[in-house]
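comment on this one:
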Amino acid sequence: MQIKGNVWKFGDNVDTDVIIPARYLNTSDPIELARHCMEDINASFAAGVQPGDILVGGDNFGCGSSREHAPIAIQAAGVSCVIAKSFARIFYRNAINIGLPILESPEAAEGINENDEVEVILDKGYIRNITTGCEYTAQEFPLFMRDLIAAGGLINYVKTKGY
């Protein structure tokens, strides 16, 4: 799977309350969550993000509560992939479970800047900053995780397998 998009960059310890503020957790509607995604850290994000854009973060991205609302808001906003130095483990699992590709690559997270155009080849763990020409690697997803992402998440994957 190949992804290409423009970058929105955030720093370290972006927690789930910043990704989707708790005051909006009275809904599980992805469209409504997307309208408020990242608004406390970047008020222009929800209005400016374009389908296919890529989010880049620092260390411990997605820390905080275990709510699935955070990756759902990011995905519903149109973000095609998240690259970070590291992820909070519960966020990592929640993202994969809903089919949101996330890649850990400290070098890429450090070397990619806001508004850069980036290409990602998930099957190979390959990241290329088209703007600068720099190339990075991330750990490849195991086959079953690629299948989960390709299916659009765990629920769709289970449905396709007939379980």
The mean pLDDT is 94. Residues 61 and 87 are 5 Å apart (CA to CA). The helical segments are 16-19, 30-35, 45-48, 69-76, 89-98, 106-111, 143-151, 154-161. Strands lie at 2-9, 54-57, 81-84, 102-104, 117-121, 126-129, 135-137.
